[in-house]
Amino acid sequence: MDTLTLTRPDDWHLHLRDGEALRAVVAATARQFARAIVMPNLKPPVTTVAQATAYRDRILAALRETAGDEPACSGFEPLMTLYLTDRTPPDEVRRARESGVVHAVKLYPAGATTNSDAGVTSMAAVRATLEAMQAVDLPLLIHGEVVDPGVDVFDREKVFIDTVLESLRRDFPALRIVFEHITTREAAQWVAAAPAATTGATITAHHLLYERNALFKGGIRPHWYCLPVLKRETHRRALLDAATSGDPRFFLGTDSAPHARHLKEMACGCAGCYTAPHAIELYAAAFDSVGRLDRLEGFASHHGPDFYRLSRNAQRVTVRRETWTVPEALPFGAGSIVPLAAGEPLGWRLAS
């Protein structure tokens, strides 16, 4: 198969940042996807419907400014989320459900990843808010890692399943949950065994294509560093099996996370892989690696909107077999940003 035409895909987990960074990256996503669930971990975080609406307006304004009337970007729709804190009131959840703008609430364990310091410190603190979400059928998106420094970084997802997710599913059986950017065999198994009507999971292209040795190939490579971190090959294989299985619980979420080059290549080494400009090509390479290109449309274009109870996109896009080289760097405001797999060949390309 040298060409594949599929329903235009959506990105169900995306970071766009704000200000100058937003203007640098938003068009890249709009060229690839019709819609995207936009993460709320700005500084300060997006915690109210009013803030989410204002952020949506800034996203669309930035897209108009940078893409103009470019046909590939026309009609892009940002789907907004709220940042769950220990103090998020149940009334805000109800306002979110009625808004038509906010489509989910994001749970970050406090300190788990970039800009998560205002996140949840105790599940008991958000119980009333979760009850309201279940009542109004507003999905909960979960960064599923414990933050206990005594837990090995490679085990934090598994421990989260055992200590948080199991009780959350038991206590809130009707709450729709998306286990975000899963990275382990245990996570894939947990999702596959959970009720399909109320459980989904996003999987990134980088966790399908790379295992943890990629971080150290030829020396430390900060542009492969993300949270949750890349895992062993056995986990990558399990994720690839899940993504290509046709199971509707699994769908595309890039977790594309832009950081300026100098912030990635410094002592703190910000976590996040930038994949927005070539996301669908990366996913096509992953599915092609196991001979399952026929399953890409379901994963990229059908399962996500079905879970969120939105209509599938009417437009179609085509990817074709073509070898090209990922740019070494791209403009990012006054500086530059390094995309994942910079300087490396890719075997698929989105047709313009």
Characteristics of this structure?
352 residues, eight-stranded parallel beta sheet, three-stranded antiparallel beta sheet, 35% helix
Q: Helix and strand layout, with pairings?
A:
Elements: E1 3-7, E2 11-14, H1 19-32, E3 35-38, H2 49-67, E4 77-83, H3 90-99, E5 102-107, H4 127-136, E6 140-142, H5 156-171, E7 177-179, H6 185-193, E8 199-203, H7 205-209, H8 233-243, E9 250-252, H9 261-264, H10 279-289, H11 296-308, E10 316-325, E11 330-332, E12 335-337, E13 345-350
Parallel strand pairs: 2-3, 3-4, 4-5, 5-6, 6-7, 7-8, 8-9
Antiparallel strand pairs: 1-10, 10-13, 11-12
Helix pairs in contact: 1-2, 3-4, 6-8
Overall description:
- With 352 residues, the chain is an alpha/beta fold.
- It has helices at residues 19-32, 49-67, 90-99, 127-136, 156-171, 185-193, 205-209, 233-243, 261-264, 279-289, 296-308, and strands spanning 3-7, 11-14, 35-38, 77-83, 102-107, 140-142, 177-179, 199-203, 250-252, 316-325, 330-332, 335-337, 345-350.
- The strands form 3 sheets. An 8-stranded parallel beta sheet has the order 2-3-4-5-6-7-8-9. Strands 1-10-13 form a 3-stranded antiparallel beta sheet. The chain has a two-stranded antiparallel ribbon with strand order 11-12.
- It is globular, with a radius of gyration of 19 Å.
- It starts with a strand and ends with a strand.
- The mean pLDDT is 95.
